[in-house]
Every structure is written in C-alpha cells, then in structure tokens.
Amino acid sequence: MTTRILLIGGTGLIGRSVDADLAKRPDTIVTSLTRRQSSGSDHVIDFECLCAAPEVTLRTVAPTGAEVAISCLGTTMRAAGSQAAMFRVDHDYVLAFARGAHALGVRQFILVSSVGAGGPGFYLRTKGAVERDIRALGFSRVDILRPGMLLGHRAQARPMEVIGQRLAVALMPLMVGRLFRYGGIDAKTVTKAIARLVGQAGDGCRTYDNADLRRIASQTASR
Questions:
Q1: Which of 50, 125, 161, 211 has the highest CB neighbour count under 10 A?
Q2: What does the pLDDT look like over 60-83, one tens digit per residue?
Q3: Rounded to the nearest 5°, which phi and psi values hold at 28?
C-alpha cells in the first residue's frame, strides 16, 4: 500500500534529508511544499495563502488527500528578524499546514519541535504553543519530536549554530542522565526516526526526546 505524504520545511537540515529518504521508498509518495523552488519535486506555495485558506491551498497540490503530514519547518530569530516574524513561521505557518492536512483527511501528523518546548523564553514558548494547537486539531495520531542541538551541515550557514554544534559535540560526554535530552543529535538520526514513524499504527499523541529518537532510528537500521 502506498502512503501519501505532505511535507513542509523540506529545504531545511532535517526536511531535505527526510524528503530525499522517503522519495527513495517504493511505498511512499512525497509532496514537498516550499516557499521557493529548490528541487524539481518541490511544490511552491504562498504561505500567506496557506494561512488564509489552508484546505484550499493544500488541495491544489494534493487533490486526492494524504495519509501523513510532516512538518520540519522552523527558523531562528536572526533569520526571521523579529519575534513576530519568527512566530509567523514556527507557529502560524505550521499550524495552517496542520489545519489544511487535517481537512484533507490526514491521519498522522509528525512535528519536529525542540527539547524544552513550552519552557521559558520566546523560542520555547513558541514551540510549546504550536505543539498544543496541533494536538487540539484532532488528528488520530500525533508524533512530536523534541531533539536537542541538531548536528549536520546546513545549505545556508548559520555561524552561531556552527559554534553551538561544536560546543555540543565537545559536551556530549558530560550529557548523561536527565541532561542527555539536551545534548547534540545527528540530523540523520532524526531523519531515520521520522522515516520509521511514518504510517505507524496506534492512535494518540506521543513525544520523543534524544534517547527515543536514537532508539527508533536504530530500529530503522536493523529492519
């Protein structure tokens, strides 16, 4: 059986890898929605139109619906330029995508969030808000990934993030016990975990930290 997947954020560190990996599988069809063309398989949409009319916008690129929706969309304060602009991307665009996906009959929603979501600080409060609002939409199954510092090469360099990645690698031996969830994790590990979660049976909402993601990814490698 073929699983139809809607993907948003397919040009980022995780999204690019998810799109490439799922495109290789004979049992999945991926429709990647982007704001600008980055590959021949992308479907460029207006994200403001997505916010205004989620179902109509998604139905133009997925007229027969989908079974799974994946959001890897996210930005930084530096890239966005302001708190309002960052919230627009990390919350409003993601939630509009989820609303449209739900209207198209999507059963499972997979969200890449962040460790500490819902905690202090604007970034974590934003992540907590989008998690809460997606849970409330009524998907049969919601999988929320909360990785620590993502390790990997980005198409667009973020100097401060490069420094943060190096620091995260250096500190990994010290990140034990409860601190383990805040440590670095390879983007490819997160990608493998997402691929493993696609189409999983069982309803409800589940969250995954670094340890969970590594465990799920290893199951992918061994099957």
A1: 50
A2: 999 999 999 999 999 988 889 999
A3: -135, 145
